[in-house]
Amino acid sequence: MKKALLIIGGLFLALLIAVGIYAWYLYDSVADTAQNINEGEDRQSNLRDADVDMDSSEPISILLMGVDARNGSTSGRTDTMIVATINPETESTKMVSIPRDTYTEIIGRGNQDKITHAYAFGGADMAMNTVENFLNVPIDYYATINFEGFEDIVDAVGGVTVENDFAFSDNGHDFPEGEIELDGEEALTYVRMRKEDPRGDLGRNERQRQVLEAVANKGQSVTSITRIGDYLDVVEENVRTNMTFDDMKDLRSNYFGARNDIENINFENGQDRTIDGIYYMEQDPAEVQEISNTLREHLELENGEEAPAE
Q: What separation in angstroms does the CA of 151 have from each of 65, 145, 189, 217, 282?
């Protein structure tokens, strides 16, 4: 398994595990899996003048979402939202984690709410439209994976080892400081905890990346056809995307070099806000604009002059 799985990081990992091995084993099975998880053709964003073309190696963006759902369901709220932009010419990737409680307009509903609710209200389309409006950045593709799929992919590689910064307990599991081994259930608890983390969402985002990198590293040593079949089963049951199989092949062929330069970007200046007794996080407009400009430049688009409307 190639470390290139980290190209777009996050929750698209399970999908890329399947795609990255298509040239080695089970081509037909992978093609069938890709067809079964596809929920539609390429999307042209209103923020683009024309469709993107991965065959021509244009910079692209992907919205990665971890959905609060189990038992094969892909409905629910997004516990994790990561915008990844990939530029094959500069061979670089930028990944922005959007805190789930971010207060913003939910496009298609005409009201402001937590950004995590966009997917629950209107699926991938509403989530993409809402993120586009929030960041003023086009979203070309998306991928979702539910929690059960996250657990299964960790178990499929035989568990992972991570370096835990501080000791904590959550959901019946203890996580001592230092190097720890996690199975799928433990890994899910580890990446979701935030109440005991002094960094809140920022700390949780870091643990998510930790576990996913560990999964990718373990995956490099997998050569068993049986184990690869397990990956495909997990992907087919728990992942959904608007990428076609040809898109996935182009992603691996034309964007491979972007694995060498990955920049993680976080929202650092959000302010707590309570409305009608409900907690939200209000992001600093200047920081939103700065992040928007960074992503637009990476996508080789002109920067906006004003912060996205709230």
A: 15, 10, 10, 16, 31
